[in-house]
Amino acid sequence: MALSSGVTAQISHFQRLNNPKIASSSSLCCWMDCHSYVSFGTKAFLHGKGRVLPTNLGPLRVSYNRRLEFLKFKSYPNLSSDDSLKYGGIRLELPLQFRIPSKNCHKCHSLVIQSNYPQNADLPRYYSKKEKKPFPIPIVELRRAARERLKNMKGQPRRPIPPPKSGLLVKRLIPVAYDVMNARTTLINNLKKLLKVLPVHACKWCNEIHVGHVGHPFKSCRGPQTSIRKGDHEWTNAFIEDILVPVDAFHLFDRLGRRIPHEERFSIPRIPAVVELCIQAGVDLPEFPTKRRRKPIIRIGKSEFIDADESELPDPVPEVPKTPLLTEIPDSEIEAPSSAEETALLAEETLKAWDKMKGGAKKLMRMYPVRVCGYCPEVHIGPSGHKAQNCGAHKHQQRNGQHGWQAAVLNDLIPPRYVWHVPNGQPLQRELKNFYGQAPVVVEMCVQAGAAVPEQYKPTMRLDVGIPTDIREAEMVV
């Protein structure tokens, strides 16, 4: 018998199914006959010529239309279901390439449902000052890759050293370096303007900040004398340095030169690490000169090389940069946006500059090595870290103040400072802390200023989580 257009099916979890064959499988089969309901579990698959769609949906409602030949899925959020909290509010239409026979059929049709963007996600783990940062790639994997690389190179002719290891610039990354510099300047100027209209508070004793008219009420202060204050924050007005964490690094005249010794740590200038990365990638700043080679180096040993003879080459012609560099606006000349529409446009531009700076810096870090200390936030732009013994992290006496250099990730170069997301501008309540989400402070400022929420930040902001109105309602949530 064929299913009519009005037939609907209530979908439940596979724990409630009575069929042991269905309950024991990781996927869920759909058994159809003329007078039976169609039951799905936490995962559903569709065999045959159907498409593969997202998975782990909560309670769904399915309707079949014989004339149009498709299934309609509707998802209803349920506070008591973890799966529905993750993937709530999804409406799917699946075209079918087959007809259901008129007689009773016991074919197993399965439907796979997946989701590219999970609704809820946890923040990166907080590491205390006594813990060492994990390696981006485990040492075992690095050694295995090195052995495999040596095995493949055995008996092969020696290849020339590619840039930037040869001392030359990667030509295709020079425009990216200029874009990162301009995006950073635009981000700083726009954040200064947004600070004129958005209240941002910073704790006097720790590094927590909050975007809102009143600081959050959570007792999470880790600063000095926190036991006396019982974890309460002491809020003050925030500055641009509280939003964009300053990460400085030594400026290298020659990025392939000798390592900076401990005695020269005060004679070498320190500049923002992102600016130093852009300089090494091709940005020319007159106040920070750097050595540019036009011929690849001649490698003598593992750490020894000599520069090639460039006397026969013609004199270099100074090139005008394709992209002119922007300049930061002084604080005295900052003007606040005059209307809400102008504030929203400024917030959208700020979000684009934030993503452009992070995306461009990530591309540069793939070619130009960046090092970070595993014990402290010290960052060095170059193939090997400096020798300055200025590490003051936990048990630095055992290392004589030397840094434990390892490969850096993007969050080491541009640390994201997370803040609590304020839904609908309502003040946060201490008892409902588990229902609130978090986002980087730049994103939270732009969202409160009127910008759309980017997709990559929605999981941690928990936008689809229903927030109870009072404590009694929160205690009823399972």
From TrEMBL:
Taxonomic superkingdom: Eukaryota
UniProt GO molecular function: RNA binding
PANTHER family in the cross-refs: EUKARYOTIC TRANSLATION INITIATION FACTOR SUI1
Classification lineage: Eukaryota, Viridiplantae, Streptophyta, Embryophyta, Tracheophyta
Organism: Vitis vinifera (Grape)
Cleavable signal peptide: none
Coiled coil stretches, renumbered: none
Domain (APO) ranges: 202-287, 372-455
Full protein name: APO domain-containing protein
UniProt-listed Pfam families: APO_RNA-bind
InterPro entries in the record: APO_dom (IPR023342)
Residue intervals passing through the bilayer: none
